[in-house]
Design a protein that fits this description.
Layout: E1 4-10, H1 15-33, E2 37-46, E3 49-57, E4 64-72, H2 77-86, E5 96-99, E6 102-111, H3 116-129, E7 151-158, E8 161-162, E9 166-167, E10 170-171, E11 175-176, E12 188-189, H4 195-201, H5 208-219, H6 227-234, E13 241-246, H7 256-267, E14 270-273, E15 279-287, H8 296-319, E16 335-337, E17 341-342, H9 343-358, H10 365-374, H11 382-386, H12 393-401, H13 406-413, H14 429-448, H15 462-476, H16 492-507, H17 512-520, H18 526-539, H19 545-562, H20 579-594, H21 600-608, H22 611-620, H23 628-645
Antiparallel strand pairs: 1-3, 1-7, 2-3, 4-6, 5-6, 7-8, 9-10, 11-12, 13-15, 14-15, 16-17
């Protein structure tokens, strides 16, 4: 059973596009060549190559016979003759089959299997050409092909025999290319067995995991862990080597956040920390070479970093000449969105929203108002214009340096948090309020003018904004009724509800039906939602919960079919002595026991304890009694039961062992 190796050699591919491209190449290969089987499919890449290795393919795809359905005999002779002519068969030789509609002609088509080499040769060009990238380009000689970067060579081997095909004027072969500097200037002939060894000898470590391990082993003590930067460097290099440099300690007078951002985002350096967590006057860089024996690369990196730090120091000092409050009016010249006005307009809206949200939360209202007023002022600073990643952070640092209260500075600093599901929420209530107000304003205004995310398009990151609000409200347990804040904007309530469901299912790990049941019962505060879904999740495994939940589904169906126009009144005198009175007495005892102050778990456990009485009721009582008064009274009893617990969950959404539950 042969092995297969494919290498697509290109100009340097942007690091962030490589892993998605590998995933797409894997899917397209499996779709096109699934019939070849294979025990293992391994994907690798460097900046200049995408690599696919498939092991133990079959030599030949077997013949396959398929049945082509033709017209029914009742369709007449012309239809039958046309079908026979299409498949080059005599009508008299066509077999028939019978189904519910009658007898029809069929044709047994034999699809001849192909050998693996022929199949690969025919379909690899389309597989490669259709690999998806966010952006593509053409180049002289590409013959209309668009790819992320120009293709320079193609290596395709099936058990060391070349699989012949051509793309953009490039013919496949058995050669690869080494490192631009460390490798041979000529193509390198390889076999599947010698592929990795030959590339290593020419300065290329094929496996990303090996490059990552090489970088990690050289970072040394004190280097600040940065997994995202590490992943970037893995796909920026083919033979990474770690070097350590230093900078003038006088730059440490600048905030750590600014220095780290310059090193990370602009130079792709790791920061180095002292034992106390403070920034050390050192950095770690990764080069795409075998080392730096003459220290020339390190000196060059130090020289570039010194220039960047000088810029940052200049921006810091220049920006301090104008205080944040004096910059508010400058926001009128900074556009938020063409149809939504300037950042001055946004600031006014955020101030109004933040003041409304702060009420009743325990937040310092004055600090929230001040933070909202100054929150976007750093957009007018030279520091943020140069280092856009620092917006918000710079505002908080400047507020602190200019003597604003700590609550104000901290809120401004954290206004864009959380940036993702893995990020922390703002640590202060004032910061949480400001972050929610800012994100909520963006959502409300964008939805108001029709900028609703569709498919993968979300240019204003509205999904992230909504998810940030949801994360803050769940983790902080702020008493804010989120749906009341969006109900007046078309499509926004449903959008927020989807984000809540996503958080409960994918982040907190609750079952989909538990989530649906809680959401269907209404959303007030997200802390309340969290308490209810946790109570259902905890109570569900108990013996009586699902049977009672199924009974509540039945109650809901019965009441729905009854089409009650008003809340029925229960008359205890009309209750049958045994099952009805027993259920009513047990229910009243439960209601008295749990009271209004009981938590949701206690209420659900109390509900589950009613199982014997509920089962007995449905076993012995006909709800739709011929006597209208008795029928109405029984509906009133069931209505009382359902109402008492319907504020926790809609139990018709709970999937019980019987499927959808007991029918009415």
């Amino acid at each position: 059973m042969p092995d297969f190796l494919l290498e697509i050699g290109t100009e340097e591919i942007p690091d962030w596009m490589i892993e998605p491209a590998l995933g797409d190449l894997r899917e397209k290969f499996q779709s096109a060549f699934g019939a070849l089987g294979g025990s293992t499919l391994v994907m690798d890449a460097t900046p200049r190559r995408l690599v696919l290795r498939a092991e133990q393919l079959i030599m030949r795809v077997p013949d396959v016979e398929s049945i082509v359905l033709g017209p029914y005999l009742s369709a007449g002779a012309k239809a039958a003759e046309g079908f026979a002519r299409k498949w080059h068969a005599a009508l008299a030789q066509l077999p028939t089959t019978e189904d519910a509609k009658g007898e029809r002609y069929v044709f047994h088509q034999l699809v001849k299997g192909q050998d693996a080499r022929t199949l690969l040769s025919e379909h690899l060009p389309s597989v490669i050409a259709n690999v998806q990238f966010p952006k593509t380009m053409s180049w002289p000689g590409s013959n209309g092909l668009r790819f992320i970067r120009p293709i320079r060579w193609l290596l395709a081997l099936l058990d060391d025999e070349v699989v012949p095909f051509e793309i953009a004027g490039i013919q496949s072969g058995n050669t690869t290319r080494g490192h631009r500097i460390l490798g041979s200037k000529e193509p390198v002939a390889v076999t599947i067995a010698t592929y990795e060894e030959a590339l290593l000898a020419n300065g290329v470590i094929v496996k990303a995991a090996d490059r990552k391990a090489r970088i990690e082993s050289g970072l040394g003590n004190g280097t600040q862990r940065d997994d995202a930067l590490l992943a970037t460097l893995v796909y920026l290099t083919e033979f990474p080597s770690v070097i350590r440099g230093s900078f003038d300690p006088s730059y440490l007078e600048l905030p750590k956040e600014i220095l780290s951002t310059v090193m990370r985002h602009h130079q792709r350096y790791f920061s180095v920390l002292n034992e106390d967590g403070s920034l050390a006057p050192a950095f770690v860089a990764v080069t795409n070479t075998k080392g730096d024996p003459d220290d020339l690369i390190c000196q060059g990196n130090e020289r570039v970093l010194r220039a960047r730090f000088n810029d940052a120091r200049f921006f810091w000092q220049a920006d301090q000449q104008k205080r944040l409050p004096d910059r508010v009016q400058d926001l009128a010249k900074v556009t938020f969105q063409a149809k939504l006005g300037s950042y001055e307009d946004k600031t006014k809206r955020v101030m109004e929203l933040a003041a409304k949200l702060a009420n009743g939360t325990g937040a310092n209202a004055a600090a929230v108002e001040r933070a909202a007023l100054l929150s976007k002022c750093d957009l007018t600073t030279d520091m943020v214009k140069e280092f856009t990643e620092l917006q918000g952070i710079v505002g908080g640092l400047y507020a602190q340096a200019q003597g604003e209260p700590e609550q104000v500075a901290s809120a401004i600093y954290a206004q864009y948090k959380p940036a993702s599901m893995d990020d922390f929420i703002p640590r202060t209530i004032e910061g949480q309020i400001l972050s929610i107000a800012d994100k909520l304003d963006t959502l409300r205004e964008c939805f108001r003018i029709g900028l609703v995310p569709t498919g993968s398009r979300d240019p204003f990151a509205l999904r992230r904004a909504a998810q940030g609000i949801v994360k803050i409200l769940f983790e902080s347990r702020l008493p804010l009724a989120i749906m009341d804040l969006v109900e007046d904007v078309a499509e926004l309530p449903g959008f927020i509800r989807e984000r809540i469901q996503f958080y409960l299912r994918d982040v907190l790990g609750y079952a989909y039906d538990e989530v649906n049941a809680v959401i269907a019962a209404g959303v007030l505060t997200l802390s309340d939602v969290a308490d209810r879904v946790q109570a259902i999740h905890h109570t569900r495994p108990t013996e009586d919960f699902e049977p009672v939940a199924a009974s509540f589904k039945r109650i809901q169906n019965i009441l729905k079919q009854a089409q009650l126009t008003s809340q029925p009144t229960l008359d205890p005198k009309l209750l049958a002595k045994e099952p009805e009175q027993s259920l009513h007495q047990a229910f009243e005892a439960v209601r008295k026991r749990v009271g209004a102050t009981a938590d949701y778990r206690e209420k659900l456990e109390a509900m589950a304890s009613l199982r014997p009485e509920v089962d007995c009721f449905f076993d012995k009582i006909l709800v739709n009694d011929p006597d209208p008064a008795i029928r109405q009274n029984r509906l009133a009893l069931l209505h009382s039961l359902l109402t008492e617990f319907s504020n926790i969950a809609d139990f018709s959404e709970i999937v019980t062992q019987g499927g959808s539950g007991i029918s009415a």
